[in-house]
Amino acid sequence: xxxxxxxxxxxxxxxxxxxxxxxxxxxxxxxxxxxxxxxxxxxxxxxxxxxxxxxxxxxxxxxxxxxxxxxxxxxxxxxxxxxxxxxxxxxxxxxxxxxxxxxxxxxxxxxxxxxxxxxxxxxxxxxxxxxxxxxxxxxxxxxxxxxxxxxxxxxxxxxxxxxxxxxxxxxxxxxxxxxxxxxxxxxxxxxxxxxxxxxxxxxxxxxxxxxxxxxxxxxxxxxxxxxxxxxxxxxxxxxxxxxxxxxxxxxxxxxxxxxxxxxxxxxxxxxxxxxxxxxxxxxxxxxxxxxxxxxxxxxxxxxxxxxxxxxxxxxxxxxxxxxxxxxxxxxxxxxxxxxxxxxxxxxxxxxxxxxxxxxxxxxxxxxxxxxxxxxxxxxxxxxxxxxxxxxxxxxxxxxxxxxxxxxxxxxxxxxxxxxxxxxxxxxxxxxxxxxxxxxxxxxxxxxxxxxxxxxxxxxxxxxxxxxxxxxxxxxxxxxxxxxxxxxxxxxxxxxxxxxxxxxxxxxxxxxxxxxxxxxxxxxxxxxxxxxxxxxxxxxxxxxxxxxxxxxxxxxxxxxxxxxxxxxxxxxxxxxxxxxxxxxxxxxxxxxxxxxxxxxxxxxxxxxxxxxxxxxxxxxxxxxxxxxxxxxxxxxxxxxxxxxxxxxxxxxxxxxxxxxxxxxxxxxxxxxxxxxxxxxxxxxxxxxxxxxxxxxxxxxxxxxxxxxxxxxxxxxxxxxxxxxxxxxxxxxxxxxxxxxxxxxxxxxxxxxxxxxxxxxxxxxxxxxxxxxxxxxxxxxxxxxxxxxxxxxxxxxxxx
Amino acid sequence: xxxxxxxxxxxxxxxxxxxxxxxxxxxxxxxxxxxxxxxxxxxxxxxxxxxxxxxxxxxxxxxxxxxxxxxxxxxxxxxxxxxxxxxxxxxxxxxxxxxxxxxxxxxxxxxxxxxxxxxxxxxxxxxxxxxxxxxxxxxxxxxxxxxxxxxxxxxxxxxxxxxxxxxxxxxxxxxxxxxxxxxxxxxxxxxxxxxxxxxxxxx
Lengths: 798, 203
Fold this sequence. Notes:
The complex is a heterodimer.
Chain A: H1 3-9, E1 12-13, H2 19-24, H3 36-39, H4 41-54, E2 58-60, H5 73-93, E3 101-106, H6 121-137, E4 142-148, H7 151-164, E5 169-173, H8 187-196, E6 201-205, H9 210-223, E7 228-231, E8 237-240, E9 243-246, H10 250-262, E10 267-268, H11 276-286, E11 300-303, E12 308-311, E13 316-322, H12 328-335, H13 339-352, E14 356-359, H14 368-382, E15 387-390, H15 394-403, E16 409-414, H16 417-430, E17 433-437, H17 448-464, E18 472-475, H18 487-502, E19 505-509, H19 520-533, E20 538-541, H20 546-558, H21 566-573, H22 596-603, H23 606-616, H24 622-642, H25 648-668, E21 679-684, H26 692-703, E22 707-710, H27 717-727, E23 731-735, H28 742-755, E24 760-764, H29 770-775, E25 780-781, H30 785-797
Parallel strand pairs in A: 1-10, 2-3, 3-4, 4-5, 5-6, 6-7, 7-10, 13-14, 13-20, 14-15, 15-16, 16-17, 17-18, 18-19, 19-20, 21-22, 21-23, 23-24, 24-25
Antiparallel strand pairs in A: 8-9, 11-12
Helix pairs in contact in A: 4-5, 4-11, 6-7, 8-9, 9-10, 10-11, 13-14, 14-15, 15-16, 17-18, 19-20, 20-21, 22-23, 22-24, 22-25, 23-25, 24-25, 25-26, 26-30, 27-28
Chain B: E1 6-10, H1 17-23, H2 31-44, E2 50-58, E3 60-62, E4 65-67, E5 72-73, H3 76-81, E6 87-94, H4 97-109, H5 111-142, E7 145-151, H6 162-170, H7 172-176, E8 179-180, E9 186-187, E10 191-200
Antiparallel strand pairs in B: 1-2, 2-6, 3-4, 4-5, 6-10, 7-10, 8-9
């Protein structure tokens, strides 16, 4: 019988712990348990057999840490082969009459994935793939990915399983007492991602006893349509007379776990501290439990690495600002790969109340697959919101979906056969909620009925790919009322019909409705309110638009979705008050300063610096503002820093204020008019992940007019050389925090010397000293950021 | 013999603002910075978790080598530090990855706040370790035992490479989500591993 068929009607009994049993049988501290499959096959076989005898339907092979990070290819193959053979012998020898399967056990790599660790996502996929290919080769019946406490690593493992075998795949995660993964993922987020990618059963194991895991498992039961797994620890360990004892007894364990099976858990077993005795007691209890039939849950959910966003009662706001359409400054940033600009846009949308961010970096002349992937990678590193990946390029879509950490929104598919043929397989493989536009090869139907017809066609086609309707959100398309007086009316009707007749959610790019009209916010916000009243589930909009946000909060309160009007009250309180009519700026003492702007920068007042710059720019040449106001202010603070009357945080506050002033100036002058020829490449060297210091240097250099190429952290020497060559920089700044990464710095300098002998190097970082810097051949050691700036000025003066 | 690795999580220990400012490089009175730090403290609260894991080991000496129960090392400095001590607590503590993400985000928005957060993170992890040591000292005092200060890999002549054995012994990733990269850097960044000596107080 296939295990997936068995699960349809039965509760599956899994096995219990392995580690503690091996330690009791003499496994030494520091010894790798996987080797025992070869050196002590009789011990491993005996443990598996004891679990089969106790009633387990499934035993996990002794391969938890069997991966290519720990073992050579040759040894890995021998270990996986022996481990599966041991389990097969146990199955043959067991007196149990139940159905029996052998699962290839896959544990975490032990490494953290980039960007917070040093393991690349694709490398992680390949590490898992190697073990999984061997498991399939030697005849395991399923793959059991377990104890995952990082969603990204869980994704890598599941992707590897899906790409390298046809076997059923179970995925189980380790949640802490706070009900989250170590990297922050919530149960709903994990269910969304893992189920979306096609795991056959999902659940929780390890960390805690069954009672403590109950709240987490209940959340799985609420959201999961596939069978839910529970494999808890025997509580917490204690030492009694030199022996390890766990505080939950077999009887208590069996009872609590079986109770959760009565709520719907469909695969039960134990983790750390559990033994065949626990499983025997559990199997006995489970005999009395009638399995609850599996049911399809209709939650439409997208997720980020930490949390889930559900489409349902309250409308979801999707920020539209990460999109170059009609934005000169954004296009410029994209061409220059100024990721910081894009990230800041995302952060400010998050702060303004967006719940999902649309990400569109499409420009005709750029390498969209590469840039979109990079944008997604960097956005998800620092922003907690789920992303809506927005591209018409299927290659870019796939590369972004692949590295996305969660279940994204996919924007978009439409009723054209080629669109569905391109997008649906991707959505099926990587998971995602698809935005489907109600248009096809004949264009956008004028009537609501025509659009609903296309929606039905899309649903029917999606079903062929096994994509559920809960994972499709329709965009019935807002067209401008300036061209067709009935345009808005039909869209509103389509929203209602799709919601009521098809039972699907809708999303709308609201602002199109007012195209060609003045004071567009007036129309947009009214249309938004009407759309919400007709059941709109999500809006793609500008969260910085006060009018739209007013409508949003008002509607939440009016539809009874805002308990005690709490959100509305908070929103109302923060609404901008009318500006007091010009306070005489001369009232403040400017004695010490040449200008108000200089004072604002010295004092580190970013908002004021930006405002003052906007005020003086019409009457003063931009470059004069830089040389007469900004640079003198920076010099003044910089001097203070060097004389130790100003400390680093104050220096930074001024630098930020200057940055705010520069941003205003950048908007008014065309690119290339600044100090564009003074170029510096910065990087934290390979193996090092600290970058606060490097970022401080970057900020100051930019203030002083240098064009900085920031390569980020953990950058290999070859990439630094390449960037220096391509940008034509004469100075490369390198940062390293630890003694263990200074050799990478030395290697980088050596490579620069050979490849680009004219390029100078400046180094800094916690462990460096003048002596150390000399010994690795750096041109300059800068003890702090100001010294790096002074050196850069010196270089370019020459 | 099996060694138990214990896990614990804590709620936030009291914050020493002056210490956080000191880590951020601020000396003397700076009211505007202090106000900004307050902002950082309230923003950071939901991004910090206080987790640690630890185990007890007996220690023994064999000539120049020190057997720490989970690894053998040659280190005169650690040997001197543990002179007269019969065992150690091996500790790994972290304030979690969410804090790293917060700092990475703040670098893009306000490097000043990123710097202050960095100082705050250093203060937080030390405060967590101090709290743990205080608790352990109280428990051990009942059985007439006392503790040394914390000693970490990389101090003096104790090789940083010992981190590998520490991570293997405490299974840090599984227990508290702490990992070691190939350059022996820890992630999350605000984390500590340490060896703490235990001895009987002579009466």
